[in-house]
Specification:
single chain; 29% helix; 5-stranded antiparallel sheet; alpha+beta; 139 residues
């Protein structure tokens, strides 16, 4: 696929079961999507962010989850929906948690993304939340 200066907007959604293997499926799907759209320069950071968001959704909830990836002019948005309506735990500073085995996910998102947030969101009859982040980039 030829590389373009400003790819047209697009969006992909992937519904996933509550299964740790879903994290790998999402990461590999995201790599393929970005590669096919000529956004290879965003792949490594995007994979890290998606892994943290989807990993949290699968690890901390019991219901279904979903990955959503969208591109609008010069902005990549990655989000994970899960069936738990409770707000995510606010991220701590990375420097304060380097020795912890867990609890670094949203701190990594905060450190690596240009912007992040969350909102309550119902999906397919399930109450839940959508945690998202954005990366600025060029094709």
């Amino acid at each position: 696929m030829p590389k373009t200066e400003h790819p047209a907007p697009w969006e992909y959604s992937l519904n996933i079961p509550n299964d740790p293997r879903s994290v790998t499926v999402c990461r590999r799907t995201l790599r393929l999507i970005l590669t096919m759209h000529g956004l290879i320069g965003l792949v490594d950071t995007a994979e890290l962010l998606a892994t943290e968001l989807v990993g949290n959704a699968v690890r901390h909830t019991e219901g279904p989850a979903a990955l959503r990836v969208s591109w609008s002019p010069d902005t990549l948005r990655i989000g994970a929906w899960d069936a738990n309506p409770e707000p995510p735990e606010l991220p701590r500073e990375l420097s304060a948690i380097t020795d912890l085995e867990e609890g670094r996910g949203l701190a990594l998102v905060k450190a690596c993304a240009d912007l992040w947030g969350w909102q309550p969101l119902s999906r397919n009859g399930h109450r839940g939340k959508y945690v998202w982040c954005e990366l600025g980039g060029t094709a």
